[in-house]
Amino acid sequence: MSLIDxxxxxxxxxxxxxxxxxxxxxxxxxxxxxxxxxxxLAAALIQPIGTINRGHAGFDDFHGTSNLAIDAGRPSHSLxxxxxxxxxxHPTTSGQPSSNPQDYPTLHELDTLENYIYxxxxxxxxxxxTFVAVFAYQYRAGSRTPHLRHADIAYSRTGIARVGTADPHxxxxxRSFWILPESGTESLPVLPARYGAFLARRGKPGAxxxxxxGHNGQQDQDYIFPLHKLFDGTxxxxxxxxxxxxxxxxxxxxxxxxxxxxxxxxxxxxxAGFDISKxxxxxxxxxxxxxxxLQPAGSSTLVVPTPARSLVRxxxxxxxxxxxxxxxxxxxxxxxxxxxxxxxxxGSTLEIPASxxxxxxxxxxxxxxxxxxxGPVNQTPINLNTLATPAFETKMKxxxxxxxxxxxxxxxxxxxxxxxxxxxxxxxxESVPAFSLVTAxxxxxxxxxxxxxxxxxxxxxxxxxKGRLPVNPSLPRPSxxxxxxxxxxxxxxxxxxxxxxxxxxxxxxxxVNRMTSYLPDAASNVFxxxxxxxxxxxxxxxxxxxxxLGSPFPEDAKLCAALAxxxxxxxxxxxxxxxxxxxxxxxxxxxEELGFHPNHDQVLSGHQVSxxxxxxxxxxxxxxxxxxxxxxxxxxxxxxxxxxxLAGQVDLSLTAxxxxxxxxxxxxxxxACERILELGPQPDLCLVVFRTIIDWQEAGPGRSELxxxxxxxxxxxxxxxxxxxxxxxxxxxxxxxxHVCQFGENGIAYKNxxxxxxxxxx
Length: 762
Prior knowledge:
globular; 8-stranded antiparallel β-sheet
């Protein structure tokens, strides 16, 4: 069956589900996808359309001058493809998403339509200097494209898939996978990344194509731009029958890296009888690592992380000394000073020192789960967080016990394609593979780094797509494990590229986003390291990998989040969960996102139900002890995200719908209130309350001058030391001053300590 027959079947399936009426309406009856046969459909799809209503919902960012349903070789100029692939277009009379996934095309159908578009350019004469390259790619709204002119496909030689505990959930109305399960359970679906094979060409940005964020200081670098999509069959390239075979190789070696580093540099001795060259110290696609699988989506492929029963777990290996399986573990070293830093972060996390900017092993390692090294593999580790304070502090300081290693499924790897049937001039030309990262869950799937960085007062924000590090040079080609996949001189692998475009730019922010991204602008760049990747080094220089992240990653996630959202739009900002205590805030989370403790005043008053927040913890709250007002918060040294991950208490539903504009709005409200209250940086300042107000006139008890929506913020200046509470996991501190800030659309009402309320118009 030919591609036009497949397209006819697609149109016939979707036409009665609202798509025929929608396209007739948008084109003033110029495009009718209900045709008698494939030949008449093919003719209709290439007929110029007299009128396209770009004012219709979802069509405002369709290419401004295109007037074809299908434009040969150009998906972004093809109205039918835009309608079916754009997450802003829906086949409903209201323009709102349909709840029935059958009303939308599948990924396989979208792939078929892409193939048909390129099949109309099968007889190409412009393939000189081209080669095969693998790209992660995604059709996007105009505000998220590399050129920002109109909706288009964004491409990168790096894809970002994300771990989880359930099978992927494809949300057809979003045209993307979604982070919440369709069933409504508390499981975390894995997020796949989609890759395709293209004939590509190296060149400078400009006429060859666009680069997201511009050149970023790399004007002399050649980028790789896709030219023609490759797909199976006889219609891809004239007079040739093409077949594709995708291969993958992924590797997680965080446990090995903790032991391979010399002890004098912070590495951990290997307990007798364990072999760190084997699983689980190193897990890969050839030794049963069970990290990812490839699943076809037409002629493209999905890298799908393997769902696990929990985000982290213990693992075992046959120990040659005992001749039996034992839990892999390490002996916790005593605390010591390395240069200006201690080997403990926040008192209870092992920190392995960096080598300058580079992490040669995981940065942080959990040490709070003690095991019996001679015990059975099904033993339950002792949770040291439950020890009384003197015993806990002694353990954390002196070490000397066996702590469980935990594995997670983050990894990095390579996606390669083998293509048969290419023209003679292209046969034997080595293909360019793609770099694949499998990383931690994305708590803000609808807010990307590249959008948040438009507010230049938000610090430490940089998308991975801006990075110009080479990628892990030790990764082998899946087709030949004796050869390396990536050239360490290639520094544009994480760039996002697209077609050349002209016209007026579309604003990055201010657009409603429904599609999750698996491209590098939704991931964090590397500083110390990143949330998604780290910087390592060999004798030729630095490179990007995943092995420098925390072991397991929730240990790193806690500390990144506590440090005022160290990776904005990736790590939630929960510094106030820990009483701030020098951590600060910049993208504050709402009280309900941090969780309501049973003793929270909103719970005691009946306005809220007690429940933990996104990370399994409870946020801060005011409480009176004796006659003194205190702030009750989590003791960071006792907080254990490994425990929460084991218990399934990581909740993405609380943050899944947050847009970039909301994060920016929270930041701006925070800095405006700090400025008007004259609250400069101070280690004993805690943001205790942060709530959304829908309308100050209805919410009360705001100042009568306040109008519109806004936020309620309450700060506490603390004094004295931390004091224990009845709960070992929480402490409290006395309040010296309490400040209130009511942020509205028309101004700010504020109360500085015991002073009277004042109002400052906007």
